Amino acid sequence: MAGPSGQLGRLSMDWDQLDLNPKVVAAVKKANIQSMKEILNLSGPDLQRLTKLSSRDVQYLCKTVAVAIKNDPIVTALQIYNGQCPFPTQNQRLSMSCPILDVLLGGGIPLMGITEIVGESSAGKTQICLQLCLSVQFPCSYGGRESGAVYICTEDTFPNKRLQQLIAYQPTLRADVPVDVVNKIKFGNSIFIEHVADVESFNHCLSKRLPILLSRGLIRLVVIDSIAALFRCEFGATDSIAKAKCLQKFGAMLHHLSHRFSSPIICVNQVADAVSDSHLCHSQLGLCDRRVLPALGLTWSNQLLMRLMVSRTQICLEDKHSDGKVCASNIGTVLRRMEIIFAPHLPQSFSNYIIKKEGVKGIKGTEV
Fold it and tell me: What angle do CA 228, 150, 114 make, to 5 degrees?
């Protein structure tokens, strides 16, 4: 597969720069062929008909064009699998601002696609989203996108008090970033808060308001907290077809925005009780035993790139470092778990984490 940039993608071409016979160059210009892509897309007989050149001259033209674009990188499936793809947006990730969770996620949240964070109440979903809203503002060299975020609230008020606390503790959480770099970032000025109460206003937000912020480069992260709340009251049990169509529509809109602007979409989802585990496949449940399932069903699941399930597990009675020493500061803290349910580039795995005043922090040695 050829790279998206380079001479092949040029809208216009200076044919005099190529090693071509002046007669061939004149014929190409007269035929109003303006790019190498047009040359390669046309068959030999079509080129002969348009340029009035001989078959030998047409073969020479195609060979010269092919040599000229050979400098564009060729990517194999093995290179993509090994993370050696030269296209930067396919390798870049949005950091979770935690090295342990970044390792779990293969570097962080993918820039293109919808990532769902699903879990029961008090599992830490909103805390993770707030941390991502701050992480996206860091320079790219530190896992950020040097831009802001939009936080769409669909049921609860925005937790501004907690956000201000996280901002104050950013130098502590991001010890990997020089203090002067952290202090230069005006975190509170780059988070846009939108309150949406129904499907109609959500549609207006996606179609009108978000494209403006994204096109101006003001944001490079969209958080929806939560997607399930929009559909809980709007659709009844007999409206399954209308609900599915609406979910597909919103999924398509979010994917379009994400891929157009290389901006991750984070959707918080709620859970429902699992009626019978006998009807559930392993990929839906993940590695851990589940008594709950993500809301919105298979229609919504098919819109996702990656699903992360978070949960509360137990009280941390003892937290040991790799050297065997006990970390007293974590004792008594609620232990939580982040699990990868599915992702095209990652295996099913999980890691434990805790939430402290400075933010979400993974616990080393708990990755499975």
Answer: 50
